[in-house]
Structures are given as C-alpha cells and as structure tokens.
Q: What sequence folds into this?
C-alpha cells in the first residue's frame, strides 16, 4: 500500500546535517504501523514525505505501487485530498466550527454535496463515539474527544492511508491504548492503512508493525 524506497531528505542548518537517510519500508494494506524513535530521529520528516507534504532529495514514495513523490504539486495535492488522511498532534480542528462542521470540511473541499457530507460526517462521528457532541466546538470538547473528532475528520473521506503524528502527545497515557484499539478496528473494517509516529509505549505495543528510527536511519523493523 505505502512503500518508501531509499528515501533521503537532508536538512543543512548551521553546518549540521539532519533529516532522514536511505530509509526503505513497506506498510501493507490494512496495517496499523508505528514509527518509533527518540526526538529528532526523523519521524515527522518521514510522515511528511509519506503524506506528500514534502518531496525527498533521493528515493521514491509509492502509493499502491505508483511512484507519487515526483508528481507535480497539483497532482500531489489531489492525492492528499482524495486518498490521504491526516491527524496532527494538536488536532488542528477549526475552533469556530462545531465537531460536525470540522468533519464535513474535507468532504466539502472534495465538493461532496452538503447533504451527503453531513450524513457521512455524522456517521464518522458516530463511529468514534462522538455523536452526542457533534454540535460542540473544539474548545467545548475534552482532549480525548478532540482527538476522536480529528480521527473522524481524517476518516470521513475514506482515505486509503491515514498518517498520524504523535496523536496522543497532548493527552495523558490512558489515551494511547484506546486510540490504537479504535484505529485497529477501523483498519480491519475499512481496509484503511495507518502510519502513526509515536514514542508512547501503549501505542507501540498495539502496532501490527513497528519501524524504529535513530538519527534519521531505520534501525529496526518488526
Ligand atoms: N525544516 C527543517 N530545517 C532544518 N532541520 C530540520 C527541519 N525539520 C526537521 N529538521 C531536523 O531533522 C531531524 C528530524 O526531525 P523530525 O522532526 O523528523 O524528528 P522527530 O522524530 O519527529 O522528533 P520529535 O519526536 O521531537 O517530533 C531533527 O534533527 C530536526 O532538527
Ligand atoms: Mg515529530
């Protein structure tokens, strides 16, 4: 489903060289994969490359066997909208919109008609257990509820691949397990593929596959 082939993305700053170097990995369809590693090891850099938000200096990103990292920006943008879902550490929910409106947003960007967007957004919120909070704004939701709203928003367009960067980082440890259980269920139900960056042991323990990074290199895949 997702394949990174000998990816290098180097940042040069003040004579120091950082980034990711020669990383190859494969995440099969329906897999819940976790990218682990200490701060600065390259997790976010790799997620941005997999999410087509950034392009590698060397190597290729393949989605369903198609090399996509070298496509023009317009084509990458289209793929991001239609086939990828993102969950960020701070959730990035729009504060003035209700949970329902937040989840409808990516569907509206895809020009899904309003009635259908609403129906699909309600179904996604129901699926993550937030149906009764759909008219709350993010500021009126708990951290765990905001996280679930962000997952509903990422999933409503039915992406093939969901990328999540430290989705439990702003929450306490009790949230890691249940979040992974939810993502594992969604992976099984929809055949969606997840790639999650995290150093939360509860998250890593529930992964189908773990990739460990150290100083921008893949040091272990299990
Ligand atoms: N835009 C940039 N310019 C220069 N260096 C960068 C840039 N982005 C990341 N880096 C460097 O690349 C390395 C990897 O950063 P990255 O953000 O991928 O790490 P991470 O594993 O996500 O860390 P964390 O767990 O703290 O989020 C770090 O050394 C970082 O300082
Ligand atoms: Mg990071």
A:
């Amino acid at each position: 489903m997702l394949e990174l082939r000998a990816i290098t993305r180097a940042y040069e700053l003040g004579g120091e060289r950082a980034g990711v170097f020669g990383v190859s990995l494969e995440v099969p369809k329906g897999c819940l994969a976790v990218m682990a590693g200490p701060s600065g090891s390259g997790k976010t850099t790799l997620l941005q490359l997999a999410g087509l938000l950034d392009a590698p200096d060397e190597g290729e990103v393949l989605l369903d066997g198609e090399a996509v990292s070298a496509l023009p920006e317009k084509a990458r943008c289209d793929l991001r909208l239609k086939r990828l879902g993102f969950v960020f550490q701070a959730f990035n929910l729009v504060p003035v919109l209700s949970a329902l409106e937040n989840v409808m947003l990516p569907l509206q960007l895809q020009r899904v008609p309003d009635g259908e967007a609403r129906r699909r957004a309600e179904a996604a919120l129901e699926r993550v257990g937030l149906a009764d909070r759909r008219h709350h704004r993010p500021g009126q939701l708990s951290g765990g509820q905001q996280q679930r709203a962000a997952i509903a928003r990422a999933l409503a367009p039915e992406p093939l691949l969901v990328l999540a960067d430290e989705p439990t980082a702003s929450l306490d440890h009790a949230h890691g397990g249940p979040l992974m259980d939810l993502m594992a269920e969604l992976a099984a139900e929809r055949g969606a593929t997840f790639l999650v960056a995290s150093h939360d042991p509860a998250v890593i323990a529930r992964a189908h596959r773990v990739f460990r990074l150290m100083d921008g290199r893949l040091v272990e895949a299990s």
